[in-house]
Amino acid sequence: MQKNPNSCINTGEFARLCNTNKRSLLYYDEIGLFRPAFTDENGYRYYSENQCDLFFTIRCLQEIGMPLKEIRSYIDHRSPEALQQLLGQQKLKVQQELEKLRRIEQVIDNKLGLVDLSRQPQVTAHIGSVGLEQLPAEYLVISPPINTDDHDQVFAALCSHIGYCSRHRLNAGHPYGAMVSTEFLAREQWGCYSHFFTKVVDEPKGHPCHQKPAGEYAVTYLAGDYYNAAPAFRLLQEYLAQNHLRPGAFCYKEAVLDEVSMADPSGYLTRISVQVFR
Predict the structure, then answer these.
(1) Rg of the chain (C-alpha set)
(2) Chain-wide mean pLDDT for the chain?
(3) Whole-structure pTM over 0.90, yes or no?
């Protein structure tokens, strides 16, 4: 330790220099983590400016969740090799945390996008009616085939799908949806789901995926309880017949506003769409 305080600064000055407080410096000294360069006969602590980088590194390690006990162990046995190993381990943790934050940001952006969608003029215009929209291609992680309206089997398939997406961190903020084969649609079997799906941003390689094609879709928006969707499906089917439109393979049912944004189910908004060909 330095024997002469002439080139040192006192505790308050060092705290201001390092954007901390004297209480933290005192605590670090008490636990043997970061000691002053000099302590005079009256117990006043002094720090050297060349301690700033060490203090900054300690705070960085603490901010990313490294326990003070582990930081102290490194400080007591520091070496270039130990530093290399320590920083390599912490860099990996930082990268994992950044990936987690990226996913959270993606969820936030997608939730904001759904709120924005609910306010678009074409959405409000097509509540209780049908219109044509150009929709982009989308990647959907899908459940195994369901093809039944049996409540117990449908509910089990939904729970299995939600659990799968949760375990593999596939939820990007879009509520799960349901696909109904247009063959079931023609037979008015609207509760006979083909698959549940969760929309993702990028192609989910290694996972069961359906690519919803880009193109022209007949779209209606259902206001209220999304379980009471029969009138909306019937309206869509009538529109196809009246306009001599040939449907694609699936009809897609997905929430726009749900429990996350609305406390009252009467305010829920669901989009039901099917690709059409002339």
Answers:
(1) 30
(2) 91
(3) no
